[in-house]
Amino acid sequence: MNISNISVDKNGAISLYKKGDDSIFKKAQEICNSIYGNKVFLRGLIECSNICINDCLYCGIRKSNNKVVRYKLTKEEILNTVKKGYEYGLKTFVLQSGEFSYSVKELCDIVETIRDKYYDVAITLSCGLMSKSQYRELKNAGANRYLMRFETSDEKLYRYLRNDSLKRRIKGLMDLNDLDFEVGSGFMVGLPEETEETRINNATLCYELGLDMVGIGPFIPHKETPLGDCLQLPIDFTIRMTALLRILLPYANIPATTAAGTLSPTGREKMLWAGANVLMPNITPTQYKKNYLLYPDKICIDESGFECLGCLSNRVKSIDKEISFKRGDSYSFLLKEKSVVKAYN
Fold first, then answer.
1. Is the pLDDT of residue 342 over 50?
2. What distance in Å separates the CA atoms of residue 92 and residue 143, rounded to the nearest whole number?
3. Which end of the chain is more exposed for a tag (fewer CB within 10 A), N or C?
4. The total number of structural domains that make up the chain
5. Per-residue pLDDT tens over the stretch 270-299
6. What is the rounded distance in angstroms from the CA atom of residue 14 to the CA atom of residue 203?
7. Contact status, residue 56 vs residue 62, Cβ threshold 8 Å
8. How many other C-beta atoms lie within 10 A of the C-beta of residue 276?
9. Is 185 in contact with 148 (CB distance < 8 Å)?
């Protein structure tokens, strides 16, 4: 695979972004199509628990929100959901929770059982910041990927929003990379006090980290948080940022996120059009979905994620793309492993 004739360096990508016209979308589409064709990979998202030790100012399941009905899926509930997803053809599962909902021992037990039953699936965890030794335990148990968003590259803003140090978060991402995880991170677009420079720096940090997966989405104010009355930026800001990320990280997997679909009825399609190549149907048992509201008015919480597969297929077809049930390992990661041909032939 050679995209040298259409690739753009970092400064060139940022210049395209700053031009403000549609040229950035054309370039992002060209790069995405040359690498991933018209394929859109699926990940079965399981929101395992909304219990969280953190009190992030933007998050609907923050520790201080006493209006949230807390839940924690049992191992059996998670395994049954994976089983059903596998029967529907899914080959990648994302287990997401609030930070420290589960102990490392519990997570390892769950991951090992999934790995034993379904050796050919990819297991992604998104369970927050841990120590390197804890990440190593999860890797040894059979986890392939880890997703942990940094949300903003602005240290001052990060500390205000999360009461923590951004450097700790970045150190965690570097630890994951050292342990040979397929590493994902990303940020919100439109946080209060954010500037255009912040957004560019967010994308640049993703580039500097060499991420294999990049998940972004619009900041949507939640009335049950301290930021509930903040202004909402239009979806266009997120779409343009998607294009910039595709150009900066041509081989990364980039999901068209549910938050974009919540803010705009065609938000996910617009992200795919701008260079995203992944969709994440929410296959959490339906009775729990309404309690995992990081932001308000979340779509698809009253129906099974499996019922959504047909709808997603039609949405993808509307922009001349096609659903793929392959594992969809990031070319970025595979190139590091020098196994692209073996994995995709």
1. no
2. 11
3. C
4. 1
5. 999 999 999 999 999 999 999 999 999 999
6. 9
7. yes
8. 29
9. yes
The rounded mean pLDDT for the chain is 95
Asked, for residue 25, whether it belongs to a domain, the answer is yes
Q: Answer yes or no: is 8 within a domain.
A: no
Cα 280 to Cα 23: distance, rounded to the nearest angstrom: 28
Closest CA to 280 of 64, 94, 11: 94
Q: pLDDT by residue (tens digit) across 120-168?
A: 999 999 999 999 999 999 999 999 999 999 999 999 999 999 999 999 9
CA-wise closest residue to 279 among 215, 344, 201: 215
Question: Using CA atoms, how far apart are residues 335 and 3, in angstroms rounded to an integer?
Answer: 13
Domain that holds residue 27: 17-344
Contact 129, 169 (CB under 8 A): yes
CATH number (domain holding residue 72)? 3.20.20.70
Task: Say which amino acid occupies 97.
Answer: S
CA distances, 333 to each of 15, 79, 145, 184, 301 (Å): 27, 27, 10, 11, 32
Residue 11 lies in a domain: no
Q: Which helix (H) or strand (E) holds 182?
A: strand 182-189
Query: Are the C-beta atoms of residues 212 and 277 closer than 8 Å to each other?
Result: no
Residues 6+ apart with CB under 8 A from 145: 122, 123, 124, 125, 181, 182, 183, 184, 212, 213
Asked if the structure places residue 4 within a domain, the reply is no
**DSSP type of residue 21:** S
| Measured distance CA(176)–CA(153) in Å, rounded | 18
Residue 232, amino acid: Q
Task: Report whether 255 contacts 41 (CB < 8 A).
Answer: no
| Amino acid, res. 260 | A
Q: Which residue has the tokens 């969709």?
A: 279
The torsion region of residue 241 among left (phi > 0), alpha (psi -120 to 50) and beta comes to: alpha
Other CB atoms closer than 10 Å to residue 9's CB: what's the count?
10
